[in-house]
Amino acid sequence: MKLIMLGPPGAGKGTQAQFLVEKYGIPQISTGDLLRKAVAEGTELGKIAKSYMDAGKLGPDDLILALVKERIEKPDCKKGYILDGYPRNLAQAEAMEKLGKVDVVINLVLPMSELVNRLTSRRTCRKCNAVFNLTARPPKVAGKCDSCGGELYQRDDDNEKTVSKRLDTYTAQTAPLIEYYKKKKLLRDIDATHGMENTLASIVKVLDKI
Q1: Is-above-0.70 flag for pTM?
Q2: Which of 70, 105, 124, 199 would be a feasible disulfide site paired with 4, CB 3.0-4.6 Å?
Q3: Is 188 assigned a catalytic role?
């Protein structure tokens, strides 16, 4: 099963993908993880990626596509894979066609107001980088990490102004992408407003019909 997870920041794509990895035994592929791994290992693609990252730029579409192609050709992807947050725009989606067809595109849907609330409620541990949410997953002791007792803080990119800007960018880039997969009859909208377990159950219901 070849699956794409779509959804705005704060929708829970990564969390749901991890559940699906356990259930279906196929790997989760995140382009951010691929970039960091390639850079750390010093591969040819990693060296190219590092030059962009050092300049504070995003890697071009052809570089990201090459990293994805390299990853899905590995043995653990024979049964399929979960693309987490990729493709991000129409150009990437069209380029992905060269790598073969996907079976389904899961689109997590939430109201903008809830996304802003989720993202601005996020707190991160200064010591171990564990992530908490004041509404969905609060720490046992206010302001303290459950794991190491470190101080929890709000990252600069989790304030309301920055969050709103990120969501606007996502909407602008992703609207044509959603329509693209809808026309191909691959898109399945999933209401992600009723908690992680209910969202997962809705996704599994779709996937088990494939």
Answers
A1: yes
A2: 105
A3: no
- Alpha helix positions (H), the chain: 13-24, 31-41, 44-54, 61-72, 90-96, 112-120, 160-183, 196-207
Predicted confidence (pLDDT) per residue in 154-183, tens digit:
988 788 888 888 888 888 888 889 999 999
State yes or no: is 88 an active-site residue.
yes
71, 88, 123, 188: the catalytic one is 88
Say which of 155, 165, 184, 205 is annotated catalytic. 155
Identify the pLDDT of residue 142: 95
d(CA 202, CA 181): 19
| Calpha distance 55→34 (Å, rounded) | 18
Please say if 166 is a catalytic residue.
Answer: yes
Cα–Cα distance for residue pair 39/36, rounded to 1 Å: 5
Q: Report the C-alpha gap between 177 and 105 in whole angstroms.
A: 11
Q: Is 123 a catalytic residue?
A: no
List, for residues 40-70, the tens digit of each pLDDT value.
889 888 888 888 777 766 678 898 899 999 9
Chain-centroid distance of CA 195 in Å reads 17
Q: Is 137 a catalytic residue?
A: no
How many Å apart are CA 187 and CA 203, to the nearest integer?
12
Domains of the chain (ranges; CATH) run 2-26+79-207 (3.40.50.300)
